[in-house]
Amino acid sequence: MSDTVVLMNETATQNPWRITLRQFQRHRLANASLILLIVFVLLAIFADRIAPFNPNDIDPRAAGVTRGFPQPPTIEHLFGTDDLNRDVFARLLYGMRVSLAVGFLAMFISIGLGVTLGAISGYAGGWLDNILMRLVDIFLSVPSFIFFLALNALLAPSIWTVIFILSIFSWMDVARLVRGEFLALKERDYVVAAHAIGATPLRIILSHLLPNALAPVLVAATLAIPAAILSESALSFIGLGVPPPNASLGNMLQNAKAWLTTAWWLWITPGLVISLTVLAFNFVGDGLRDAFDPTLRR
Amino acid sequence: MTRYLIRRLLQMIPLLIGISILSFLIIKAAPGDPLVVYIDPNKPPPSAQDMARLRAQLGLDQPIPVQYVRWLGNALQGDLGFSLTGRRAVSLEIADRLPATVLLGVSSLLLALLLSVPIALFSAIRRYTWGDYLITTLSFIGLSMPGFFIALLLMQIFSVQWRWLPTTGMRNVRESYTGIQAAIDIGQHLLLPTIALAAASLARWVRYQRSSILDVLSQDYIRTARAKGMTEGRILRVHALRNALTPLVTLIGLSIPQLVSGSFIIEFVFGWPGLGLLAVNAALKRDFPIIMGVTMLSALFIVLGNFFADLAYHFIDPRIRYE
What is the full DSSP assignment across B184-242? Predict the structure, then answer.
């Protein structure tokens, strides 16, 4: 008897996350992209086990043949070697590790910053809101790329510098998003009621407002990763990102620029990996956005 | 309307002040003594007394806020200081490079604009056909490829393999063309950077306009027009397209920052002698006065771009009324 009651309850109430998941599974491109991303992330995590060579090691045999020239792909070096006779496949795996790490970390920091400032702005309102939103306006109207350049020239070049720079120039959209959601949500009856029974602001923000503003934040977070990966690769391509000898997808392309005409294998593979990664993240973000949108439910 | 205009203009002032404070602080945080530019390496080094006098003359002994006000006053009069590497006035360096950047920016804006409207229209009225899927896929790919990778691909195909177009620079330095020939020469150098820079905006705009056209086509007044027997072509021309294209104005305004920052990379790849190349080289050499000069100018472009986008919106869509 009690068993059937539980069963009926389970079928009657649908978990919203489960609905979203089911909707997401219907988006075929997003699913394929998710699988591709999982493969890429696993390749990046286990780069040290998969890579046939150390990415910064110079292959002495190849160097002995033609020192200082990139070697075309062979069975031993699947994607060839670069001008220092380092294995391109190994560098690609380690470059993916760097690029994905930069993408994820920059996303976490910028989303954290955006959510925090947006929440404060939307919940507090008044002069604090005004100041924070003017700050958003300022950050939105500086050409961020040139500030990347300036800050990069100021700070010591490292992966952490790149992550820091990318994060502080990409929190604004999320802040605006969260603020907008909070402004609408905080007038709802249940929030007013929570306030009336003496819930602290922190409690209202964390357990009443934020969960209801989470869907667009998740979409923004998914789309923040490819944006950071693109910016990192652009910075590294110019020579102001991840410092050598460590590989990143961007600085592999920079290195390849000198060999544009003679060694296509140096720049085709990193370029394709960046494009595929960003494309896959964009599709997943698109799929998530559709899955969260109740008007698109089939 | 006039009141709205004045308020918008006044709003720009604190914005620009905020950006200028940010820029100034970065100059101040820069390592190295700014007096270095004034020392002639061919003469014996100046005495400590001379240095102190120069420092006082330039106001560098004043507190930071006072220095900021002075710097701002000079900047407003077009004096942005001296380049550390070129030993020229920053304003002159910028004036030299500005035309090339404007040429590249405007031509890629036009290219993206002229191509995106017909492509989006085709994609929207042939929705869910293979043509639409092809366009959607291509625009997703365009959004996902880094601009410099597109640039490298174009360079490889058109300049290296087929030798149709020059690889780098803005002019053929070996020839001294004049008149029409010079224009053709610049045009040939311009083509690939323009396509590379336009690709991302094109992809984004096709996506937006496609959904905007589909949105309008599902409105009641379109159904009414169909019901009274209007031809599809006339419905599109008279009713749908005008309303569907208003968001384009905002998109153009919003794309200005992307155009500015995108052009840095594209100019760097193609050796296009514009502001972007100037800024990237300045960053590589840590020439902060140049970096900040370009920053302020780009910020001004962006703020003004948004302002004019809002203004144009008002003229295009009379339903919008500003308080």
Answer: HHHHHHHHHHHHHHHHHHHHHHHHHHHHHHHHHHTSHHHHHHHHTT--HHHIIIIIIHH
